[in-house]
Design goal:
Largest sheet: 5 strands, mixed
Mean pLDDT: 88
Number of strands: 9
Strand order of the largest sheet: 2-1-3-4-7
Distance between the termini: 5 Å
Bound molecules: zinc ion
Number of domains: 2
Length: 218
């Protein structure tokens, strides 16, 4: 990635200012991926935080000025080079978070579903033992235990089904959020359920009209 900045219209980024040279400065990344700003022997100089430079590592927070008046917006200049690597790298945590949440929803619901379904089956057995301990058993107690034996499994199946019905809803909400967040930082196209590393290997957006660069470098 090399972004040439200056007054001439054939620059990557055109700076319209009378004190900016035709080819004023160059913005690029070094081997370590750091941003470098280089003055191209401009007439009025390039300044970083008020200090004139020939070549300097910069960050997005630095104040860059070309000549006496022109304040350069570094992020804007980077966009002219179609470089979206900074915004793209932040998508890694979006993808990782999505996968983590999905696993959590699925496993927690599976556990609750099983619990609801198995507990009521165990309950009548326990009650039967209790009744046995309470003596020879009266018809009323027998009636109650029979009632529980019939109702408890039905309740368990109902609650288990209700719990498992929550899964699609929670997963749907998660997937909706993911579709909004996991998009190309330039064109906004949803990137699909493709791991971030695979996308990084593609290096750029596959949308023909976009082709935003996702990784820095040439
Ligand atoms: Zn794109």
């Amino acid at each position: 990635m090399k972004i040439r900045i200056g007054k001439a219209s054939d620059n990557d980024y055109t700076a319209n200012d009378p004190y900016v040279s035709r080819y004023h400065a160059l913005l690029f990344r070094d081997a370590e991926g750091c941003l470098l700003l280089e003055d191209l022997d401009s007439a009025n100089g390039t300044y970083v935080n008020g200090v004139q430079i020939m070549r300097k590592r910069i960050t997005l927070r630095d104040k860059v000025r070309l000549g006496p008046d022109f304040a350069l917006n570094i992020s804007e200049a980077l966009k002219s080079g179609n470089d979206y690597s900074e915004a793209f790298s932040s998508l890694k945590s979006v993808y990782d978070g999505y996968v983590e949440q999905k696993v959590r929803i699925q496993s927690s619901n599976q556990f609750k579903t099983r619990l609801f379904q198995s507990l009521p089956f165990a309950l009548p057995g326990v009650i039967g033992i209790l009744i046995g301990f309470m003596g020879k058993g009266s018809p009323a107690l027998f009636g109650i235990s029979l009632f529980i034996a019939i109702c408890a499994p039905a309740t368990g199946i109902y609650m288990g089904a209700k719990q498992s019905a929550k899964i699609p809803k929670q997963l749907q909400d998660l997937s909706n959020r993911f579709k909004i967040d996991y998009v190309c930082p330039k064109c906004g196209t949803f990137l699909g359920e493709i791991p971030w590393e695979s996308l990084a290997n593609k290096k750029q957006c596959p949308v023909p009209s976009c082709k935003a660069k996702w990784t820095s470098g040439e």
